[in-house]
Design goal:
The protein is α/β, with parallel strands linked by helices and 248 residues long. Helix 3 packs across helix 4 and helix 5 packs parallel to helix 6. The termini are far apart. Bound molecules: adenosine-5'-triphosphate (ATP) and magnesium ion.
């Protein structure tokens, strides 16, 4: 079942066209990595799919519901429902520094999903255990390592029961030895058939975790295929030289 369907979307910032007629689909339970040079439009694409930016044309549907069709967005209430099904994890964690770890994970459950505090706290505790962070519930983000903060931000996204999770460079602010923790979490989510789209510059990470790789350049996907195939044996010179540069 297709859970993300993107057809012919475009996006410009002033005279700069950042996304050029992009189309792709992601199936339920698939893990897709988006690779590509800096400035190629990867973050903009995630921001458009998660409704942090508006597209200028094309269609996006998520979890079987239209978000925008031929450039026309659905009503606000429908948009809100769709956005609730989608989680986004950022490079820099974006945790509230003045809230405890527990409160970072309960706040949106209470205010967005209207869960009672007890239910929200139970859910947060279960997720913290899953992330190996049960002992950090009362800590503040500033007291945690980058890898721990990133796991809290993943727990926060999961607490809202998303059907799709998007990650924008989830490991790039981390020391290399902490990348393994995030990899482990993403692997366990993949085993539970969570659909995930991950923008990353870490090629070994993408090769490990993704079923499929999309390679973006200049606002378009120029190559795609099974992760091992595209990474080990790219078809295009452009992809090959990008990968070679990163591996140096
Ligand atoms: N809000 C904005 N206003 C103007 N230009 C923008 C805006 N956001 C992004 N851009 C431009 O759009 C292009 C694509 O940016 P984007 O952040 O999507 O790239 P990226 O592929 O995520 O790069 P990186 O790998 O460095 O994160 C860049 O040229 C950037 O300067
Ligand atoms: Mg980016």
């Amino acid at each position: 079942m297709e859970i993300i369907t993107v057809k012919g979307i475009s996006k410009s910032f002033g005279p700069l066209q950042v996304l050029k007629d992009i189309s792709f689909t992601v199936n339920q339970g698939e893990v897709v990595a988006i690779l590509g040079p800096s400035g190629s439009g990867k973050s903009t694409l995630l921001r458009c799919i998660t409704h942090l930016e508006l597209v200028e044309g094309g269609s996006i549907s998520l979890t079987g519901r239209d978000m925008v069709k031929d450039g026309v967005y659905v009503q606000a209430e429908q948009l809100r429902e769709i956005c609730l099904k989608v989680g986004l994890v950022f490079q820099n964690f974006n945790l509230f520094p003045h809230f405890s770890v527990l409160r970072n994970i309960t706040e949106a459950q209470v205010h967005v999903l209207r869960r009672d505090r007890k239910t929200a706290a139970d859910r947060a505790a279960a997720l913290l255990e899953k992330m190996g962070l049960s002992d950090k519930a009362a800590s503040y983000p500033g007291e945690l390592s980058g890898g721990q903060q990133q796991r809290v931000s993943i727990a926060r996204a999961l607490a809202l029961d998303p059907e799709v999770l998007f990650f924008d460079e989830p490991t790039s602010a981390l020391d290399p030895e902490l990348t393994g923790d995030i990899l482990k979490v993403i692997r366990s989510l993949a085993a539970e058939k969570m659909t995930m789209v991950i923008v990353t510059h870490e090629i070994p990470f993408a090769r490990e975790v993704a079923d499929r790789v999309l390679f973006m350049d200049g606002g378009a996907f120029i190559e795609e295929g099974p992760a091992a195939e595209v990474i080990d044996n790219p078809r295009l010179d452009r992809t090959r030289s990008f990968l070679a540069r990163l591996n140096r």
